[in-house]
Amino acid sequence: MRLFPIPLLSHVRGLVRRAPSPRMYAVPALACTNSTISHSEEQTKEGNFEVVKSLELNEVGVLRVLTTMRDDPYLALSFLKRIEGNEGASLPSVSAYAAVVRIVCSWSLDEKLSCLFVGLIRKGDQGRGFSFADLLNAVGEAEEGDEKLAFLLLSRVSSALVKAYAEIEMFEEAVYLFREIEELRWDADAGAYVVVVQALRRKGDSEGVEKLLSKLLSLETRRRHCFFYMDFIEGLCVNEMSLEAYTLLRPLRDADILVVDGSDLAVAYSRVIRGLCNEMKLEEAESALLDMEGCGIDPDVSLYSAVMEGHRKNMSFSKALRFIVDKGAKQGKRIINPVIASSILQCCCQMGKFSEAFDQFVEFRNRNIPLDRFCYNVAFEALIKLGRVDEAIKLFRGMICEGIAPDVVNYTTLIGGCCQQGRCSEAIDLVMEMEAKGRPPDIVTFNVLVGGFVRNAQNASGILKLMEERGVKPTSVTHKMVIQGLIVAGKIDEAEALYQSLDE
DNA sequence: ATAGGGTTAG
């Protein structure tokens, strides 16, 4: 039952043969370069183009030229583009497109294929002079003797078309075409499934999604390879549909489908859990994690840190800390890596518990937990907030002695600390050190510095000049920092004047 | 192939 008539594949089974039309194609010389093909590519192809340069080709001629381009999909595509771009002349025939599609397809350049289709969709049936059913017919026709190859080819080409529709937000058409592919019993690829789920969800058709997933899993239609499911799960997760991926994952696991090389189930779980964390679906992520552990898979610690970071970003600091402590206790092995360590330290800082944060840092160090510049940075922040800037600088020097190279952020943190204590010249020394070490200050560094100077009633024009010399452009944040600094310094009039001048 | 964190805006 069709909701509305979109003539897509309606007569694809009717494989109609057509005699080539006597149209002529003028093939322009290579001089007008094609912007979609990179320069080096273009140059290497130049030789091949000589053959057809400035020739008048009829359709048979075009097809003959295309057969010589079988090993060069980019050349075939640009050849086609050239004919398309030829003002006033006939457009390429459906057979010419079919030939190019087959070439591109045989090289697995699915994205190029979708690209080509986007262009064709935009032209419309009238503009093309043929329908997509015609095109698919023509593509399939060439493999008439080999049913299996035709099936693979048509599955692939029609999947690319589904993706092309989705790409230009013609979701109805994408879903409609997908349904037709299902009816024809071709296999849409994982990418096509992903965009269809996306389209259905966009419509709020969760029932449709459910049906699609269960159809994919039902025994009689389940003929997919593990790779398909892996790709599908990955596609769902990167497109913020991790919950759908998780619904798919469990039955796949129970049916022992994700077992090609033993680690597939672990990889799938990792993707899903990471995806859930990215979408801040932390309860689901935690239960997926338990689920994973229940399968006897030992999760990578990075999954623990993903969940923990989620809680932290959610400002659920104690939840984050409790989570990691519980996991650590349960695992009975060391799960604290530098990422988790910095996350723990940051939770403390964000709760305002700066001395606890620093104590924790020292404890980590005593326990020989590897600490990197991220962890050190949080320790610097804690010390600075406690007003212990000297200790922060000492720790910074110690870090360098440990062989950890400081980055712009480390320097910026310390520069902020110096400014906070009114130690502006030390701040400048650090800036000079940065430049000497080839880690030049960025906009954030300068904002901190400028703000610090102004707050301490120091002349900031030198800093602004330095910024200009280094090619770092002030932003609205810079101005905000200066204005606030002036207010802190009690220079209300100057702040007001600056504010007014910025308004203009 | 699973990959993640820290600095401005007081």
Automatic annotation (TrEMBL):
Gene Ontology MF, one: mRNA binding
A GO cellular-component term linked to this record: mitochondrion
InterPro entries (UniProt xref): Mito_RNA_Proc_CCM1 (IPR051114), PPR_rpt (IPR002885), TPR-like_helical_dom_sf (IPR011990)
Keyword terms, alphabetized: Repeat
Swiss-Prot/TrEMBL PPR repeat ranges: 265-299, 337-371, 372-406, 407-441
Biological process per Gene Ontology, one example term: mitochondrion organization
Similarity section: Belongs to the PPR family. P subfamily.
Record protein name field: Pentatricopeptide repeat-containing protein At1g13800
Species, as recorded: Raphanus sativus (Radish)
Gene: LOC130506801
